[in-house]
């Protein structure tokens, strides 16, 4: 079971795999409606200069 789902880095030769952040968020929201919470990986992005992965906000409110 994956712990992280990485948004693709912009690298040469991989543009056809690029998914905008807004679409990645929608995919994650759809996944969350299909599987249990512990099965949903965290959506992350690698940002140069940051010490660790950066979680992308899915725009969900905690209740």
TrEMBL record:
Its cofactor is pyridoxal 5'-phosphate. One of its GO terms (molecular function) is 4 iron, 4 sulfur cluster binding. Signal peptide: none annotated. It comes from the Bacteria. Keywords: 4Fe-4S, Iron, Iron-sulfur, Metal-binding, Pyridoxal phosphate. InterPro entries: Aldolase_TIM, Lys_aminomutase/Glu_NH3_mut. The keyword 4Fe-4S applies. The modification N6-(pyridoxal phosphate)lysine is found at residue 53. Transmembrane segments: none annotated. This is Radical SAM superfamily protein. It comes from Proteus mirabilis.
């Amino acid at each position: 079971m994956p712990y992280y789902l990485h948004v693709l880095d912009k690298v040469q030769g991989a543009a056809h795999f690029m998914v905008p952040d807004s679409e990645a968020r929608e995919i994650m929201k759809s996944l969350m409606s299909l599987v249990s919470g512990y099965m949903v990986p965290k959506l992350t992005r690698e940002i140069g200069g940051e010490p660790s992965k950066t979680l992308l906000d899915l725009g969900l409110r905690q209740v």
